[in-house]
Amino acid sequence: MSSENNPNNSQQALWPILRPFQHRNFSIFFVGQGISLIGTWMASIATSWLTYRLTGSAALLGVMGFLSNIPLLILGPFTGGLADRFNRLTIVKIAQITEMILAAILAYLTLSGIINVWHLMILGFLLGVTFAFEIPARQALIIHMVGLDDLPNAIGINAAMFNGARMIGPAIAGAIIATFGEGVCFTINALSFLAVIFSLYSLKLVPFVKSEVSESVFYNIRQGFVSSFSDEATRKTLLLVAYTGLMGMPFLVLLPPYIKNVLAGNATLYGWVMACSGAGAMTAALTLVQRVRIVSLPNRIGLANLWFGIGILLFALIPYVPLGMIIIAGLSFAAIVQAASSNTLVQMVVSDNMRGRVMGIYSMMFLGMLPIGALIWGFIIEHLGSQIAFSLMGAGLIISGTMYLKNRPTISHPTTPHAPHTFAHGPSAQ
């Protein structure tokens, strides 16, 4: 057996962060996705700032968050089922190409000076639909690059990559917006998709074998929910993830009014605040790249949720920029510990033939609740102000973290469960 697929050889001698990089496919994907994510975060910052600049309305900023994320809430279970029935790699390729086209359209509209808020809303919604198809397939694809033994490490590295880009992209975007405008950020984002598309076409996975089972789509969705909520640990964790998506995740989406009105800052400060958030999140992700004992995950998830809430509450009550930079790095650290640990728990328990569906439901809970939260909190900020809204967010997360810790689920498996896994693509091909 090759070193790529045998967990009992030289892999074990490596520092955990390096283990997944012994898989050729994962290394290629990491580079391409990492470059693209920097562009994605630049575009995200530019979109939020442009929306608030055009409208001056926190409520419309919440509407933007709603439109760009609501497709995942509605389509998540369906697209997760598709990821179990069809070639996951093909789904991700089509989604990335579509996202590049949408990014190019946004860049053209902005640079030509004809951009309007309704353009942003339509493109945001279409991008959200594309994400709904891509995210479950991409998350379920990782195991086919690294295998089950290195999956926890790969999830941690992916989180580090995502948040490393979240540290770099906003810092660059803030300076570019202040100097050249948002259109340049959108252009860079469109070009950055070439890197991830090239990496996807360079992967060499075991050929996809379509399942011969002809079950209805609705039966597949039902099975996904049954698999997700029949186990105590996944059920309680998914419910906490959904609550966090509603109460905590809109925080970053709705930062521009706080930056402009409370801190009297501009796009450059916004970029640096988001960069500090990314630094804290990347640090958290790197600490998670290690062997995972499943039994320890619920306690880690609950504590992280608690500290996430405390961080948002402190950030709201202490409008002092230097200290705020430290606080937002800390609360982002906690948010990623919760998210990555929840992702790891769910993926290590579920069998592969249900992975796409369950990850679709996970994505629906994690990101799909964000649009509802963004809509609600956007209107609260519009009428009560950012500080009151953020204080309520933090208090709600403190309560949920405390309740989860008090009633945290017990897990019977001391280590990764060796449930049967039916790989559609198989681990990385040589």
Explain this structure to me?
The protein has 430 residues and is mainly alpha-helical. The chain has one domain (16-209, 216-406): Growth Hormone, Chain: A. It contains 17 helices and no strands. α1 runs antiparallel to α7 and α6 (151-179) packs antiparallel against α7. The radius of gyration is 21 Å and the shape is globular.
List keywords for this structure.
single chain; 430 residues; mainly alpha; Growth Hormone, Chain: A; 17 helices; 0% strand; disordered N terminus; disordered C terminus
Annotated CATH architecture: Up-down Bundle
Distance between the termini: 11 Å
Number of domains: 1
Tally of alpha and pi helices: 17
Query: What is the subunit organization of this protein?
Result: single chain
Secondary-structure element order, N to C:
HHHHHHHHHHHHHHHHH
Calculate Rg over CA atoms. 21 Å
Instruction: Name the average pLDDT.
Output: 81
Summarize the topology.
Elements: H1 24-55, H2 58-85, H3 88-111, H4 117-141, H5 143-146, H6 151-179, H7 182-202, H8 217-229, H9 232-247, H10 250-253, H11 255-262, H12 267-287, H13 297-317, H14 321-349, H15 355-366, H16 370-384, H17 386-406
Helix pairs in contact: 1-2, 1-6, 1-7, 2-4, 2-8, 2-15, 2-16, 3-4, 3-7, 4-15, 6-7, 6-12, 6-14, 9-14, 9-15, 9-17, 12-14, 13-14, 13-17, 14-15, 16-17
